[in-house]
Write a structure and sequence with these properties.
Layout: H1 21-39, H2 49-79, H3 84-103, H4 106-113, H5 115-121, H6 131-139, H7 147-160, H8 162-169, E1 177-179, E2 182-184, H9 191-195, H10 200-216, H11 218-238, H12 244-252, H13 257-269, H14 271-285, H15 309-319, H16 325-336, E3 340-341, E4 353-355, E5 363-365, H17 372-394, H18 397-400, H19 404-424, H20 429-465, H21 472-487, H22 514-531, H23 535-546, H24 553-559, H25 567-588
Parallel strand pairs: 3-5
Antiparallel strand pairs: 1-2, 4-5
């Protein structure tokens, strides 16, 4: 479908950011002027508190405008990638960001060199909002280089991101899939539909026709993926971290032990539960040669759910009712003010996300096809958007941007409330079984699948750190091996499974995927308390959403009533999966 065929109400309204390209370029000019002012603070940044405050306020103003411009450019590029006007805007913003990185490279060093003066300044109430962010800069002092080296690193930052930029720009074309004698379009948005088809030939064809394209360009993808790993290893090395993981969790302000705790729980202690689930799938589907492309065939075939966008919002409002009218008002504002781009169109970026800035609304990209996954994805992304909206409304700019580490909590809480609502309001045992199955699949994706991804990513990072070769064969062989261990002996691996690693964008996000597991475990704990009638938990959670990034992720979550360092919440999460599995087995008898 072409974008021009979509009704306006189903496309996001980016004119609220800029009505005219000239307004975009006016902001760019203003940012360049502000950047020159900020560069003039070099050598005088910490000379007195007035200079220090003036710099921070000016930098905030510039940063807000740059983020606004970036938001406009990247949202437009994701739905109209062939529009060269938008591509030029994106290139302009990226160039400006690179210039800012170079011209302001002196800042952290100057703050750390004069740490005693800065620490004294922070006692002033005018700097209250900056205390947490500045304390993080001071904590980074052992990892800073001298001025000349920092300048060199700043100049290569944009080059270092080339691998990720190449990956984001790649758009593959896939051969159509034949279903009941008719050719149907295969792309990132429709792949899951084909993999749920009851006809094994349709599933196999879709899987092969999709991932053979990744194999066709395997050397390109191998270079981009290994390039990201080498970049992360390079930065961790020059910053004097022991590993890329240590560098990543330092920026998250959490201990590295949390990463390994999650991997140990999912990949060792509780993986037999997942193997048991796959064995049950094979038995219920009665497939002797059970391949990984068969895993998405619904186990509850007698319940077929399709939803319009109107129906989705009706359900979402009911599922999220425990949060109260103020929360629901934002949900409906997202719809009424056209924050959401719903339908898949030619050349549109696949998947879904929520993205915005302090000076814009949080916008949502969807590829809505009307199934339960579409409903679940919509409520997931709305969780992100409400989190962003409340953070920006309740925090000063410096504390509005919450860390990625806690980003998946709000979205997963929403998803979990949705599935509980659907299970509780099922009209029959068969429908109840359907939604229990959906929640089992959701748990598999977040409690088991993401830690397997994290294990793969960590191994690639260590290979990069140890200067080991990372050809496509090495990468795909490793991924195929991990998948076989992950799915268990009851599931056969298709010959193309190794190349499916090139399809996962989160491998380019520097230790992101394990945070989905954290989000799920925390979400299960929060939802359990909310549904038990704990009004204090609702208040604590809403306060968490309003807190942005004003303190460490561990403190934010602890104040929300859930300690992410506590083993019990992970054990409870996998116990929840086991209880669901037991109930599903009983209903299947």
């Amino acid at each position: 479908m072409e974008r021009t065929e979509i009704e306006e109400k189903y496309k996001w309204d980016l004119s609220k950011i800029y009505k005219d390209p000239q307004d975009f370029y006016k902001d760019i000019t203003t940012c360049q002027q502000l950047l020159d002012q900020l560069a003039g603070f070099e050598g005088k940044l910490t000379q007195n508190i007035d200079n220090f405050i003036a710099f921070l306020k000016t930098r905030d103003t510039m940063s807000q405008l740059i983020n606004k411009a970036y938001c406009f450019a990247h949202l437009n590029c994701d739905v109209e990638p062939e529009n060269q006007g938008y591509q030029q805007m994106m290139a302009t913003v990226m160039t400006l960001l690179q210039q800012a990185g170079v011209k302001l490279v002196y800042v952290d060093n100057e703050i750390c060199k004069n740490d005693k003066s800065v620490t004294a300044y922070l006692k002033d109430d005018r700097l209250q909002a900056y205390r947490y962010s500045i304390s993080n800069i001071l904590a980074y002092k052992p990892h800073l280089l001298d001025d000349e080296q920092e300048m060199l690193v700043a100049k290569i930052d944009n080059i270092a991101d080339t691998s990720e930029q190449v990956f984001d720009s790649l758009r593959l074309d896939f051969e159509d899939v034949e279903v009941n004698g008719k050719k149907e379009t295969l792309n990132q948005a429709t792949l899951s539909k084909f993999l749920k088809n009851k006809n094994v030939q349709v599933r196999k064809d879709a899987y092969h026709q999709f991932f053979k394209e990744y194999r066709k360009f395997e050397n390109t993808f191998a270079l981009t993926l290994s390039g990201v790993m080498k970049k992360d290893a390079f930065y961790s090395d020059i910053r004097h971290f022991e590993t890329p993981l240590e560098a990543s969790v330092f920026n998250d302000d959490v201990p590295s032990s949390l990463f390994f705790k999650i991997l140990d729980k999912a990949n060792r202690q509780y993986r037999p539960l997942f193997h048991r689930y796959n064995r049950l799938k094979k038995e219920l589907l009665q497939i002797d040669d059970f391949y990984n492309y068969d895993l998405n065939v619904p186990l509850v075939t007698s319940v077929s759910k399709k939803y319009t966008i109107d129906q989705c919002f009706d359900i979402i409002n009911k599922a999220l009712a425990p949060f109260g009218q103020d929360y629901l008002k934002i949900i409906n504002q997202a719809r009424d003010e056209r924050w959401i781009d719903y339908y898949p169109t030619a050349h549109k970026r696949g998947g879904a996300y929520s993205s915005g800035s302090y000076l814009t609304q949080p916008y949502i990209l969807m590829n809505f096809i009307g199934d339960y996954d579409s409903l679940s994805t919509l409520i997931h992304e709305l969780g992100h958007s409400v989190h962003t909206y409340l953070s920006c409304q309740n925090q000063e700019y410096v504390n509005s941007n919450y860390r990625i580490f806690v980003a998946e909590v709000a979205s997963t809480v929403n998803e979990t409330l949705l599935i509980n609502y659907m299970i509780d309001h099922a009209k029959s045992n068969q429908e109840k079984k359907y939604f229990i199955y959906e929640q089992l699949e959701n748990c598999v994706g977040l409690l088991f699948r993401q830690p397997m991804f994290a294990d793969f990513e960590h191994r690639l990072h260590m290979m990069a750190q140890n200067n080991e070769p990372m050809s496509s064969q090495i990468i795909t062989d490793l991924y195929a091996k991990l998948n076989q261990e992950y799915f268990g002996e009851d599931v056969k691996m298709d010959e193309l499974v190794g190349w499916s690693c090139y399809y996962v964008p989160h491998f380019y996000y520097d230790y992101y995927v394990y945070k989905y597991t954290l989000g799920m475990t925390v979400a299960l704990a929060i939802v359990s308390r909310i549904l038990s009638g704990d009004s204090k938990q609702v208040d604590r959670y809403l306060e968490f959403l309003k807190s942005g990034g004003k303190e460490s992720p561990v403190d934010l979550l602890s104040h929300a009533g859930v300690d992410p360092l506590d083993d019990a919440i992970y054990d409870d999460a996998f116990k929840y999966f086991e209880d669901l599995l037991n109930e599903f087995e009983n209903l299947s008898k």
